[in-house]
Design a protein that fits this description.
387 residues, alpha+beta, 5-stranded mixed sheet, 4-stranded antiparallel sheet, 12 helices, 9 strands
Length: 387
């Protein structure tokens, strides 16, 4: 009697490796700093939901965006939302920022009416398009799914750049950061283009090269704001992780005993930046791990048809697609679903694999099951270390 053997892949487990960062940032300090910053904002919020600042919509929208990232259940958020519902917003800056923080359909509809024929945005339709308003509007349009309007805004924003830099006098760290945030939001939803990729690369390189030795950007009264903006925008560049690490360290050093970074607007920018830095650092840590893996097409069984009581040869190609050497990995072979608690029919040790290399495994096993169709599972097991 013959039986058919079908190869299948079930799971891959990663091995954890600790890497040493190039900049001595205490990553464990980020979350406590965020917690202190949130507590400060919640404490200074006024009964009407505002914060008593001159640029109320700007400040409250950035605070709402930051809290939505780091503390989505903050009691401050619904009060800001209620305040927005009654606020008069008649300029692009306010409409775009409100759209970013709340995705308000009303704000988005009003924003669309302000788009210029060149695809960009000015303070209103009575003003020419400018880079800042176009960048803010682009973020809102991309976040809310306004594809055509977002594409036009992205194309106009690119035209404001000079060799990947936005701003006069050689470039502005804050404006370039705002443009990068907008373009990253667009690319995340709709994909990139050659023009966008080229500009992003040039802008990221320029912004990175503008960082000061202490990890901050553009010293002076607005240094913390510029640093927070740069860190948030560079967090999407894996190659800039050391820049992000140094910038986050500079922000941690600048936090006041009250938990703030001065005014509420700067505090919100710092919270957003630390959140993005934390995410980027976690992703970088996992990116440095080994990643032994195999796919269903990497597993083969010969012969495909086998008589009862005979043996089959199971072959598998295992690759390490991570960035560190994988070790102590073993391949377990099953005739039954491992998730059901089945025991492996055989175990094969996988030799140590340097990053980017692969090896072939082969194991002969006897088929003792009744006639019928049989599925083969191959599972990679690896020890998981501790950071």
């Amino acid at each position: 009697m013959l039986r058919r053997v079908i190869a299948a892949l079930v799971a891959t487990t990663l091995t954890s490796v600790v890497t040493t960062p190039a900049f001595a940032l205490d990553e464990s300090a980020i979350q406590p700093a965020i917690d202190r910053g949130v507590a400060h904002l919640e404490a200074v919020q006024m009964p009407d939901g505002g914060f008593g600042t001159r640029l109320a919509v700007r400040d409250e929208s950035v605070i709402a965006e930051a809290l939505g990232l780091v503390r989505p259940d903050s009691p401050a958020l619904p009060r800001i939302t209620a305040l927005f519902s009654s606020a008069a917003m008649d300029d692009v800056d306010s409409l775009a920022r409100a759209g970013i923080s709340s995705s308000s359909p009303k704000a988005v509809e009003a924003l669309l009416a302000e788009q210029q024929v060149d695809g960009g945005f000015g303070l209103s339709r009575e003003y020419q398009s400018d880079a800042l308003d176009t960048a803010l509007a682009l973020r809102t349009l991309a976040m809310t799914g306004e594809r055509d309007a977002a594409r036009s805004a992205a194309q106009r924003l690119l035209k404001f750049a000079s060799s990947g830099v936005w701003g006069e006098d050689g470039g502005s760290a804050s404006l370039t950061s705002e443009a990068l945030l907008a373009l990253h939001t667009y690319v995340k939803r709709y994909g990139s283009s050659t023009a966008i990729d080229t500009t992003l690369a040039a802008a990221g390189a320029w912004l990175g090269s503008s960082q000061l030795l202490d990890g901050s950007w553009a010293g002076g009264a607005l240094s913390t704001r510029n640093t927070a903006m740069a860190v948030a925008s560079l967090a999407s560049f894996p190659a800039a992780i050391d820049r992000v690490r140094a910038g986050a360290d500079a922000l941690l050093a600048g936090q006041l005993p009250s938990g703030s970074w001065g005014d509420v607007f700067t505090t919100a920018l710092a919270l957003r930046a630390l959140h993005e830095a934390k995410v980027a650092l976690e992703q970088d840590r996992f990116a440095q791990l080994p990643d032994p893996m195999l796919r269903a097409r990497d597993v083969s069984v010969e012969p495909q048809l086998v008589e009862a009581g005979k043996s089959v040869s199971i072959k598998a190609s295992v690759a390490n697609v991570g960035l560190a050497t994988s070790s102590e990995v073993r391949a377990e072979l099953f005739f039954d679903d491992p998730a059901s608690g089945a025991e492996p029919i055989a175990t094969v040790d996988v030799p140590d694999l340097a990053a980017g290399t692969a090896t072939s495994l082969e194991q002969t096993v006897a088929v003792t099951r009744p006639p019928g169709r049989l599925r083969v599972y191959v599972v990679l097991r690896a020890p998981v270390g501790e950071d």
